Amino acid sequence: MNDTNRLIDLLCINTIRTLSMDGVQKANSGHPGAPMGMAPACYVLWDRFLRHNPADPSFANRDRFVLSMGHASMLLYSTLHLAGYELTLDDIKSFRQLHSKCAGHPESTLIPGVEMTTGPLGQGASTSVGMAIAERWLASYFNRPGHEIVDYSVFAQCSDGDFMEGVSSEAASLAGHLGLGNLTWIYDNNSISIDGSTEIAYTEDVAGRFKAYGWHVQRVHDANNVDALHAAYEAAIGEKKRPSLVMVDSQIGFGSPNRAGTPKAHGEPLGADEIRLAKQAYGWDPDKQFYVPEEVTAHMTQGAKRRGGTLQADWDKRFNAYTEAHPDLAAQWRTMQRGELPKGWDEGWPVFDAGAKGVATRVSGGQVLEAIAQRVPWVMGGSADLVASTRTKVPDSEYFSKENHDGRNIAFGVREHGMAAIMNGLALSKIRPFGSSFMTFTDYCRPSIRIAALSNLPSTFIFTHDSICLGEDGPTHQPIEHLASLRAMPNLDVIRPGDANEVVYAWRHIMGTMDRPALMALTRQNVPTFDRKKFKSAEGVLRGAYVLADCTGVPEIILIGTGSELSLCVEAGAKLAAEGAKVRVVSMPCWELFERQEAAYRDSVLPPEVTARVSVEAGSTMGWSRWVGSEGVSIGIDRFGESAPLKDLLDEFGFTSENVTRVAQSLLKKTGGERGNGKSAKSRGTGIECATL
Ligand SMILES: Cc1ncc(C[n+]2csc(CCOP(=O)(O)OP(=O)(O)O)c2C)c(N)n1
Ligand SMILES: [Mg+2]
């Protein structure tokens, strides 16, 4: 390395540092320390190794860089700006301001070039494992001898906090097991976190831990040693059989005479005086702010653009040759990249015959998933060690493994959180992922579900054993507050289908939706399959809620059910109708979808003038008042469950048609209805237009 090169490297590194410091200072908020310490690590990767094209940030075969330590967002913003992305100095100057592209933590929906939304520690690292799995699978599915169109690498930059979080250990363990040689984590080993030295809480042998996971581990003893970083990245990329960890010993707030190496450098602006001192330490003009020397633009920005253009032109050539040799695969690739589905994706799915015995929605769900997986090659996923219970298997496909990258089933092991994060990495790579466990363990996945919702990812979370009805396993396994808490999450469709054919339409909605995640709550126990010749079509699921069975004229009472409780509403409705009540039964599998319908439709399902409403759902009643109104009643469970056989639980908690009928009768009395007075349906000329199941 000659002196001129060293000088330009240092100039670029210090530009990243000073832009980051200035951005944080102007916002009067943010995290300067990590960018100052890790600027060389980031620069060397981006300038010498990362294969990307700033002119087309979504270039499909680009390397992925995930800033897992999202608090160091200014590091990424500065780097993206200098690497030629559409992120101006003005954008950087508006860091952390309302509607700025440069949000407090990086958000993938705001800036092309930000591969994923990060900030909650551990998520980025874990999700990068999903990206690496995706790359290996895509390579295996699409590449052909002499035609390698997929060969990218995945990098994540991680901090102490990332590695203290359990989810990164789950994902690292799986990555090691799977031998993901295309994955490199760059670890900011600065031994500082917010509360002080990491000595107070985190003293394990990190290198030893990763070696035990099966990783290739290297250490760079000085973050400012550009040559050592270069050599370590080269070796990491060269290691094809194991994921790589590059531990970089850095100093937080490097260059700041009074804050370097202390937690003070972590999460607050340095202050104008300290910034001047740090700039002087870098040999920078302390009077200059947001300063980008011309040489830096010429080297880093123009260089990245030039390399990006060449890289993409070369890939385009490869892809054209591929298209000639393998037109069908090339067409599939394009469809997948556009976020579309192959022709015929929704044809030939199962249709379920009516029957009182019915089928558990986990079982019908599994059958529909099989049909989808047979028609959409890039559906991929698995379970956190419960595949036999959750029925989520891609048929005729093996497990994805070290030896077999073809497999579309992923054995996540008992790592629910890691699973959900990895699913997001698959979704970010255009794969349509699913992952499954028991509903009560949504709690173990929640942070990653939230990232999916926040970043508009079409991840499909499948959770079975969705109520106390799972029975003898008892309250530890019986979800209560889960539906309510998940419904509180913006941008997540929580779907609890009421019978097998509702499951079919739930999946139709899910597969047709690319801009948000869905969570399906499915039963362990059988639920009856409604006769759709008598009841309204399950297509109503596509609108979130629909009238399943109705009276003639305006109803006096509406029974609203979800999932396994829908059939109770139908039974109770039939009884009430027999007594002469005008009853409507509404199936409401997805609140969020219903909320998105126009008001006229919502009012047609739940007419505002009908205030006698009963909701029935075996879970927390929180939130149901929104649909039943102030005069309505919610039958639910606001305490923990019990271990017992199903039948006893249903009696104990009031999930019987008799109880629903009783509650409805007393509500009718209270709201001035005439029911319970012995008038028959016939004599009143009304009656529920459905059969009793
Ligand atoms: C899951 C989660 N918990 C807590 C936080 C708040 N937080 C932000 S950074 C940080 C730790 C800082 O230490 P480190 O990760 O080593 O970053 P450094 O200070 O070295 O930049 C914490 C606790 C978070 N962002 N995510
Ligand atoms: Mg740290």
- The stretches of 5 or more residues where confidence is low (pLDDT under 50) are 674-687
CATH level-four homologous superfamily name of the largest domain: Thiamin diphosphate (ThDP)-binding fold, Pyr/PP domains
Report the mean per-residue pLDDT as an integer: 96
Number of structural units classed as domains: 3
Q: How do the strands line up in the largest sheet?
A: 10-9-11-12-14-13
What's this entry about, in short?
The protein has 693 residues and is an alpha/beta fold.
Describe, in plain words, how this protein is organized in 3D.
- With 693 residues, this protein is an alpha/beta fold.
- It has three domains: 3-309, Rossmann fold (3-Layer(aba) Sandwich); 355-528, Thiamin diphosphate (ThDP)-binding fold, Pyr/PP domains (Rossmann fold, 3-Layer(aba) Sandwich), CATH 3.40.50; 546-684, Rossmann fold.
- The chain is built from 25 helices and 20 strands.
- Strands 10-9-11-12-14-13 form a six-stranded parallel beta sheet, with helices on both faces. A five-stranded parallel beta sheet has the order 1-2-3-7-6, sandwiched between helices.
- The relative contact order is 0.09.
- Mean pLDDT is 96; it is low at 674-687.
- Thiamine diphosphate is lined by residues 33-34, 69, 71, 119-121, 159-161, 165, 188, 190, 192-194, 252, 266.
